[in-house]
Amino acid sequence: YQRRVHGDLERTPTSIMQSGGIPRRYLAIGVTGGVLLLWFAVTNYTPTQAVAGDTVLRMEPVQANEATPASCPSCPTCARCPGCAICPVCAPPAQTRVLSEPLAGITLRNQPGLCNQIVRLGSAGDGGWNICNTYKSGEKCVVYSFGIRDDFSFDVANEQKGCEVHGFDPSVHIETAYNTPKRTFHLFGLGPTGSYGPGKAPFRWPGANYLKDTNSDTWELKSISDIRKTLSHDHIKILKIDVEGAEWFSLIEMLSSGLLNSGAIEQVLFELHFDPARYKLKDNGDSVTISQIAEDDMDYIGILSGLLSSKMRMTKWQWNVGSTCCIEVSF
Questions:
Q1: Which residues of 203-224 are buried (b: 16+ CB within 10 A; e: fewer)?
Q2: What 3-state DSSP class applies to 302?
Q3: H/E stretch holding 265
């Protein structure tokens, strides 16, 4: 900057500089003072630092090439920032910057005293789920099971309990194997309501093959509220969600709509996925602590805080089989 200013002064004719009645020495003093002020400001500038315990939603400025609701019509209103021009469903994640201290953290704790009997339905490994045994003989019960692939042992177990079971998965065609008088398969999934052409489904980590793949066919996604309305179900006994990262969209929707406080859902089972580049999970025995160690474009800690503040209460958590970045939680 200084070299450029001095170069301009040297190329300016003396007559022009003095024509306005400003002596050269005063002009030189003014320029020198301005340069010194700029140097002092730059050398003493200290950027704001994140403090441990703060919840930081996004620290980078919005990039011009990110998707907006106009260019991505399927974007719902941003739950964490209503009216924002950038929606986390469509915008690519911010560049990861690992920090020396956690940005935020939260602990999920077992509360077994809330349930007289916790049992596992379905397979002993991945595919089975821990639920509170509240089945009653002859009751009319409805179960929603999101995310099936090739294991619907949990759905079969609920059918054997006498429940009407609905399975949802846009990625597999298993109607023939799945459907019975008490079980119905639906070829659509959970997420922001809309139709998504090949490669357009909104994925979060781990998504399809850890975000290496995407949907090859057109997928239909619907929110919990839309599905309940379509199927005319006022009360759901068990809502199971294992959708490889899309659970965060459904959590936002259920919290913002008040569904989790309405009494319309008796039990909710989630498989929660955390990108190990952004989150660290610590096993404390009867609890698990999730710490955010890098920036993210969706506030997972805030979402979980909202879940814990709802009327739902967690009865059990455990690691997903063979994983240290995914947990199963039962509310």
A1: bbbbbeeeeeebbeeebebbbb
A2: helix
A3: strand 265-273
Asked whether 278 and 102 are in contact (CB, 8 A), the reply is no
- For 252-311, write each residue's pLDDT tens digit: 999 999 999 999 999 999 999 999 999 999 999 999 999 999 999 999 999 999 999 999
Contact 240, 146 (CB under 8 A): yes
Q: What is the pLDDT of residues 129-157, one digit of tens each?
A: 999 999 998 899 999 999 998 899 999 99
Contacts of 131 (CB under 8 A, 6+ apart): 118, 119, 120, 121, 238, 267, 269, 330
User: Residue 220: in which H helix or E strand, if any?
Assistant: strand 219-222
Could you give the angle at the alpha carbon of 211 between the alpha carbons of 129 and 197, nearest 5°? 95
Q: Are 211 and 203 in contact (CB under 8 A)?
A: yes
- How far is the C-alpha of 28 from the C-alpha of 248, rounded, in Å? 60
Lowest mean per-residue pLDDT among 72-86, 103-117, 224-238: 72-86
